Amino acid sequence: MAAGAHSGALEDLDTRPGRETIVSALFRRGLIGLSVAFLAALLLAPLAMVFASAFHDGVQRYLQTFADPDTQAAIRLTLLTALIVVPANTLFGLAAAWAIAKFEFRGKSLLITLIDLPVAVSPVISGMLFVLLFGMRGWFGAWLAANGISIVFAAPGIMIATLFVTFPYVARELIPLMQQLGNDEEEAAITLGAGAWMTFFRVTLPKIRWGLLYGVILCNARAMGEFGAVSVVSGHIRGLTNTMPLAIEALYDDYDFTGAFAVASLLTLLALMTLALKSLVERTGYRRR
Amino acid sequence: MRDGQPTVLPGFGLTLGFTTFFLSAVVLLPLAALVLLAASTPLHQLLDAVASPRALASYELSFGGALLAACINLVFGFIIAWTLARYEFPGRRLMDAMIDLPFALPTAVSGIALTAVFSANGWLGRYLDEIGIHVAYTRLGVIMAMTLIGMPFAVRTVQPALLEVQRDLEDAAETLGAGRWYVFRRVIVPAVLPAILTGFTLAFARALGEYGSVIFISGNLPMKTEITPLLIVIHLEEFDYHGAAALGFVMLAASFVILLAINLLQAWGRDRMVRGAR
Do A102 and B8 touch (CB under 8 A)? Predict the structure, then answer.
């Protein structure tokens, strides 16, 4: 499943002299106008609204939100979650891509489908899976309680749910890329006596670095921004189990709109940075497959 | 042929082992828990949860809303993809980069921002309110959020397909006397149809499961503006795991059907491309 994610590497359009008629010019302007209007209402207006609302009561009030210990705790938890989840899924993505792209084995297409599964599952259901496993009345609930381990309504639950949701991001980027690149260079390196790790670091990694970076950027954006899955497992304990997106909801529910949008502005900056980085990677000629 | 052969490359056992282990622990075991719990629920309890009036109303909104949003995206996604693929205008690159914003923007952020824009005193909401269109806290708002979240899927599947339509085919048709509308209908649409339908299905799937961007603008009135994922959350908050698992199972089954449809559509698209290239 290619999650609608082909990059828009824009080739220069071949202009076609002599084909512009009044009707086609009007048609072109109409379509461009429609596209701009649609995106302005649905994308630009909300984007501008985030910053307008965040600074509605001045910079002082904006900064005040971040002096709040609960907000700071939420930022820390979000960073910590990304710091654990992104490397774990990167490692997984590399291993999965190596196994799938370099070797032939039975059940390969089933494996690819299973890796893609979390993308197709609603975030709420993703979170619920871990409540059913680790929650008070879940499969391991009684055992965990007896041993004093809390996963659901605690930080580990948030991390596991995020791990699930961002699971395929690096793998689905690397698998088609490495399949296309083939095995020749690695086989040559091994045949000439290079070790396994040396082959990986000196031959494979340089070839896949842009695809890897691309997957990591997207994985990180989703890990920091995930709401639905995390919301279900978090328990919403302020200062303890709220991530940034959950802090936004908590502030919003308290009618502290300025505060909610202030936290939202940070995540919006992250999103804009993600898009900018993504465009940069695409500039190198990397195309999603 | 033995699995993993023939190649001199190392690490087959290690990487495949790690992959299967990690996959089983993070994805398969939790999914099995959901399926087993739904399966072990007594039938009458299962039916109560799945077919209660409140659940049925939520399906109507979730499936109906996602369908409408996907239809809107089918039309506008095609227009935007067409604009980006065929026309040169100032700001084209910026527009192209912006398309992915709903992917990158956390759903809670787009949820509260969309609500603020379309509420009765918001930038756009105030004008819409004057002409009697209420977006925030209505079903229309739900559809709006679902449209936003599915939009990149519709654009990004159609855009590359449009770029691949062979221009010489269009030229040949025009040289032979076909009008532009005829060329569009008989040359372009058939070539990009699989992509359009794939984009439609992906947008539908995403909108169906969406939670974060919808719950702020929906107002969450039971029977009226309550989506199925929210109903699952409510069951969970009441520690009604069986009810939540039953509803989750319905949504999961829907996702699998959609996933299957997408795979079939993509196979169809590839098949067409291969035959077209000959």
Answer: no
